[in-house]
Amino acid sequence: MKKKLGLVYGGKSAEHEVSLSTALAVLGAIDFTKYEVTPIFITKQGEWRCGAVVDEPLATIEALRLPGENRPHNIMSFLVDEQQNLRQFDVIFPLLHGTNGEDGTVQGLFEVLNLPYVGNTVLGSSTGMDKVVMKQLFEMAGLPQLPYIHFIQAEWQENQEVILQQCEDNLTYPMYVKPANLGSSVGISKAQTREELSQAIEFALKYDRKIVVEQGVIAREIELAVLGNDHPSVSVAGEIKSVSDFYDYESKYADGSTELIIPAKLANHTYLSLQTMAKKAFKAIDGSGLVRADFFVTADETIYINEVNTLPGFTPVSMYPLLWQKTDVAYTDLIDRLIALAFERHEQKQKLQFDL
């Protein structure tokens, strides 16, 4: 029998459109002979809409924006039956990038309903989303990182000059300013001067209350894909070459100006070190399912971990599926593996003892 799969996408997030692109790509690659797929769309306002079962790829992104007259907008009715004791789906495949989808919130909903779901758990998702907590965990794991400063909006409003001076005392220009809880390079700016630094912080605060200011470095941007649960596998390495100052939102999804080199040209010992670090980062956040690990590699082969992404894009130009394609895992097979890993992790949890 086909597995009943709920595909959740969209979301109340700055990365809403990215999620739609990912959902369209997944629907174009999934094996409909194995899965009965139901699209579940979350609008930018946070309204849940459930569509009819689809048995073939959808033609356009607009087809994913399910109209309001579909099933009643009751989240629970999408996921469980009227008595709330039978699952409507065998597994959920969340394709929600950024806030309210990649940060552990929707994963918590699936956990409470005891629904198997693809990808990282509440802990892995939340720690992978918050760049400050992520960096602190990487530090504990002994992973090399570039210097950084972090603070919250209230601290900035009360002590702007103090924070600017702290950045300049501990970091050198250029600096990169980022919202702590966002992906797809949304809200990120490069600062060459104090004035630009102040403007970049104000811009980032539009997207999050917590800010990270990182030391810039002249280095290659190298990424590896991690797949698995307790015994993860790592893909070949890929290199990003962008014509912009950094791999920003436009470079990733819009203008096609970025070159992805897969496999990246690396010395064997550097590649092995990157593989080891990618696994260590995956375990540091207690990852499950999938992670893309991003690194900087300098001219003298020094490696710094930049971050991990717990729900990397699946668009046709996304690095994660491309890395696995070059590691002899086809797109459709990758989706099958991720779903199998979701069942594996769920079954492990069912064996835990919940009474004394």
Task: Report on the architecture of this protein.
One of its GO terms (molecular function) is D-alanine-D-alanine ligase activity. One of its GO terms (cellular component) is cytosol. This protein has 356 residues and is an alpha+beta fold. The protein folds into three domains: 3-117, 3-Layer(aba) Sandwich (Rossmann fold); 128-132 and 135-142 and 218-348, ATP-grasp fold, B domain (D-amino Acid Aminotransferase, Chain A, domain 1, 2-Layer Sandwich), CATH 3.30.470; 147-215, Dna Ligase, domain 1 (2-Layer Sandwich), CATH 3.30.1490.20. The protein has twelve helices and 13 strands. Strand 12 and strand 13 (303-309) form a beta hairpin. The protein is globular.
Q: How would you summarize the topology of this molecule?
A:
Layout: E1 3-10, H1 16-29, E2 35-42, E3 48-50, H2 75-79, E4 91-95, H3 105-112, H4 122-129, H5 131-140, E5 148-152, H6 153-158, H7 160-170, E6 175-179, E7 189-191, H8 194-204, E8 210-215, E9 220-228, E10 233-241, H9 249-253, E11 259-261, H10 268-284, E12 289-297, E13 303-309, H11 319-325, H12 331-350
Parallel strand pairs: 1-2, 1-4
Antiparallel strand pairs: 2-3, 5-8, 6-7, 6-8, 9-10, 9-12, 10-11, 12-13
Organism: Metalysinibacillus jejuensis
GO molecular function: ATP binding; D-alanine-D-alanine ligase activity; metal ion binding
Pathway: Glycan biosynthesis; Cell wall biogenesis; peptidoglycan biosynthesis
